[in-house]
What we know:
two-stranded antiparallel ribbon
Amino acid sequence: MKQTLFLLFLAVSGLSLFGLVMLYSTVLTPADAHRFHWQLAFFGAGLPVMGLLIWMDYRWLAQRPVLYLLAGICVVLLLAVLIPGVGVRSHGASRWLRGLGQPSEFAKPVLVILLAARLARQDLPLAGDGGRAFFLTLLLGGVPAFLIFAEPDWGTAILLGMLTFAMLLLAGARWPHLALTGFGLVSVFTLLLAYNPLRLMRFLIFLNPQAHEQGAGWQIWQGLIAIGSGGWRGHFLDGSIHKYGFVPEQQTDYIFTCVGEETGLIGTTLVLLFYLGVLRCGWHIMKQAGDRFGFFLAGGCTMVILLQAGLNIAVNTSLIPCKGLPLPFMSYGGSGLLAMFICAGLLGSVAWHSRPGRDSSRPR
């Protein structure tokens, strides 16, 4: 497992350092410099946190008191951001707590832990329990997703829903249960979308971004131009012109467009290779896990990183409608960066402490 841990560290460090370089390239004002320094500080804090989690035995997280504590803190913080005067409201959403960042970011690793513990305790596969275990597990993922949806943060809520479905599928859930629930959720989502003008407009822009390039589709269209203009080798570091207001807030959800413009196909391919490295490590760690909890924990941590990366890159390349999700390890955001380091640390802990072949009851 030492080789796998080294590859994981290389991929995570490579993404984080690449993100810092890209973030530094977007520094144009003193406020931008302040953001860069904060990101650098969280990077410096995130590496020791990841190392500490790797050193600690992941199995202690499966204890009921720890699970109840994590679940309680998560729900309290997600509720707190919705309280006027407690949560910080910005850009039409209440997603932040002063001094604590975005609780929704930390809900990602917490949900992975809770789902892994829940699925590990199933005496029988989810395919044979008549649906009760399936819907109880679905409820476990639905509570934080609903609270985050109410902020509103549709992107993160959808990500948690996809994570829950993926882990249920990993546990052997029946396809009819997944299909029926998925159809119901898509129907509700479509209804909500029809009565939300802002997000409905985002969907219509996605269908034809060029028709709205001078209006609401400006960011999407300019992002595509930025990536395309980079060619195969880019304009080199600090050579981007789209950071000068053409792609607003490029340091957060649209950092991948800066990668494409400044480093071209070479840089974007390198980023994808780093994420493939995370996938390779996660798959190997999951298959070598010696117990059910480690199996689901490794699978969940891998999926939350890769699902978020896939959604962000798909948004940047206009493959799906615009959603506010950061690129893991690369986008600006201290709480988001720290949450991803936590996921990587948990993944490394499974690799370091599990004993392959110890539990033959885990899924294969």
